[in-house]
Specification:
With 454 residues, this protein is an alpha/beta fold. The protein has two domains: 126 residues, Aspartate Aminotransferase, domain 1, CATH 3.90.1150; 280 residues, Type I PLP-dependent aspartate aminotransferase-like (Major domain) (Aspartate Aminotransferase, domain 2), CATH 3.40.640. The chain is built from 13 helices and 18 strands. The strands form five sheets. Strands 4-14-13-12-9-5-6 form a seven-stranded mixed sheet, with helices on both faces. Strand 1 and strand 2 form a beta hairpin. Helix 11 packs parallel to helix 13. The longest helix has 19 residues.
Length: 454
């Protein structure tokens, strides 16, 4: 048998074996995946389909928005290897280590003012769960245990664990099937949309729409102050809820109203942090600081899982005081909290992100311009209802549901890996994506949509 035949048989066997035993996200058991990944380097994936055909494609998803430095970056893999030779893991209860301390110091130094304490965890969803525990314990320690519900907006997404599912859109979200088990929280409409003009670096928004939204937001919080302990939002960009950009001034409204009612403002920056929206944190678009902030995804440059929840000294002191019958500790302790490998890789990722010459501050604006100009012609397609770009995020919204398989295959034939959902064909490519690769992404998306949907 020829080497080519062996390769075909191996790939066919891998995809079939996968379907027999591996259950993939948001998919039925037994569904065959479209491609097998053979290797990944830089912005590129080497794929093979079930017939053994090879495809080289730009990872325009950044592997679910996390791989900001590209695949197999030597600085990250080097940090991982060095740390693995010293101490791959050690429990974090009663012990500490240098990578964790350095990472906490680095995160505090590069976070909105006032955030001083860092709680590490395994994933983005868990970081939000921890934020919710901080809110509940803060309010209980303040003598208000009944204020154990959150206020949030429709169209949000904060994770797949049970507490976080309760914060996702209860009607249109992907977790509505679990509503009988969800905690009841309070929801207000989505904040009014905002449009960012990349060429002029200006926002377009509707003052009247913001005023109406702010009035409703404050009214619901004021009417339910005795039950609401905090507000949680994805700042400026709602991710899995529709890749929707909203008026940044809504964050200022939330900050003001939270202060008036002693509610804690939680910002979920898991998808938006580390420069993705064109600011280090998306909250910078409004010039406000949260009481609690969740980070993940790009924290490790996509090399491995890991997250962090940051909070203020005011919150940390209240939770740690042990008043009103509450324990003098935050009641959470992941087994792999503060894992040294995670900490070492995160430190390397932050060094890359903050590099004056090659970090996000130079790469994201360049990528933003390329996406804005390259995706603009998509508006001429009959199937397209909107095109929007913010930072290193590009979105083409259709006026119908996307044929995910057909559009994905059409894009891969053009050298671009994407994963559309609902009516959205969107990209969050690595920051290292070159101008030529950005043009390829844009052309690939437009041609794939045109081929499948017209």
């Amino acid at each position: 048998m020829s080497p080519r035949s062996e390769a075909v048989r191996e790939v066919q066997g891998l995809i079939a074996r996968d379907a027999r035993h591996v259950w993939h996200p948001y998919a039925p058991a037994g569904e065959e995946q479209l491609y097998a990944v053979r290797s990944a380097e830089g912005a590129l994936l080497r794929l093979e389909d079930a017939e053994g055909h090879e495809h080289t494609a730009i990872d325009a998803m950044g592997s679910w928005w996390a791989m900001v430095h590209g695949h197999s970056h030597p600085k990250l893999t080097g940090a991982l290897q060095r740390q693995s030779e010293v101490m791959p893991h050690v429990m974090f209860g009663g012990l500490t280590h240098e990578p964790a301390v350095r990472l906490a110091e680095n995160l505090v130094a590069n976070s909105p003012e006032g955030l001083q304490h860092v709680f590490f965890s395994d994933s983005g969803s868990i970081s939000v769960e921890i934020a919710l525990k901080m809110v509940i314990q803060y309010q209980a320690a303040s003598g208000r245990p009944e204020r154990n519900r959150m206020l949030t907006v429709r169209g949000g997404y904060h994770g797949d664990t049970f507490a976080t599912m309760s914060l996702c859109d209860p009607v249109d979200g992907m977790h509505h099937a679990f509503s009988p088990l969800a905690t009841h929280h309070f929801f207000v409409p989505r904040p009014p949309s905002g449009h960012y003009d990349v060429d002029h670096a200006t926002w377009t928004w509707d003052d009247q729409a913001l005023e109406a939204w702010a009035t409703e937001f404050e009214a619901i919080l004021a009417e339910n102050t005795e039950r609401i302990g905090g507000v949680i939002l994805e700042p400026v960009l709602q991710g899995a809820g529709g890749m929707r950009v909203y008026d940044p001034r809504a964050l200022d409204v939330a900050r003001r109203v939270c202060d008036a009612h002693d509610c804690l403002l939680v910002l979920d920056e898991i998808a938006t942090g580390f420069g993705r929206t064109g600011r280090w944190t998306a909250s910078e678009w409004a010039g406000i600081a949260p009481d609690i902030m969740c980070l993940g995804k790009a924290l490790t440059g996509g090399t491995m899982t890991g997250a962090a929840t940051l909070t203020t000294s005011r919150v940390a002191r209240r939770v740690s005081a042990g008043t009103n019958g509450m324990p003098a500790a935050l009641l959470h302790g992941p087994t792999f909290m503060g894992n040294p490998l995670f900490c070492a890789v995160s430190l390397a990722s932050l060094e890359l992100l903050t590099d004056h010459e090659t970090g996000w501050a130079s790469t994201v604006p360049r990528l933003e311009r390329a996406l804005a100009h390259g995706l603009a012609p998509a508006a001429d397609l009959d199937s397209v209802s909107d095109v929007r770009v913010l930072g290193a995020v590009g979105v083409i919204e259709l006026n119908r549901d996307v044929d995910v398989t057909a559009v994905t295959r059409a894009a891969v034939r053009r050298g671009v890996w994407i994963r559309p959902f609902r009516r959205l064909v969107y990209v969050m490519p690595p920051y290292i994506t070159t101008d030529d690769q950005a043009r390829q992404i844009c052309h690939g998306l437009i041609e794939a949509i045109g081929e499948v949907h017209g």
